[in-house]
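step: validate -> pass
step: tokenize input -> pass
step: predict -> running
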Amino acid sequence: MNAPTTSRDNRFEPERGVPVPYEMVSAYTLLVGQTDGEPSVSVHTTADDAWRTLDRVVREHCNMRPRPRRRADADATTRLANAWRAGDPENRYWNVTTHRLPVPVPEIARHPVPVEPAPTLVRATSRWIFG
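step: predict -> pass
step: emit ->
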């Protein structure tokens, strides 16, 4: 859950009909807000970072002291965010969403070309002969 998740996939280029390799990357979107103010929206590369940010934002809204730096507990953060929302459920909201994003991976030398071996020099009498 800490590292961004990636996996390989092949999609087709519509104009050429050839497969293009894609790397599937995970991203996490955090949305926190109240109806009477601007929402806080952020994108994170790890789930741990998204939950830690949610914990920090909710603590700021509640005028609580910041949590010491350590790994965020998703269950504890969910309970804290739900308790904050329960204070005014019609106007407060939060959401952590996971996204799987395809990122095209460029190919180098799509059609491999055989490499000709370099000519070797062989000495025959007084002339050089390329073999």
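step: describe -> The radius of gyration is 28 Å.
step: cleanup -> pass
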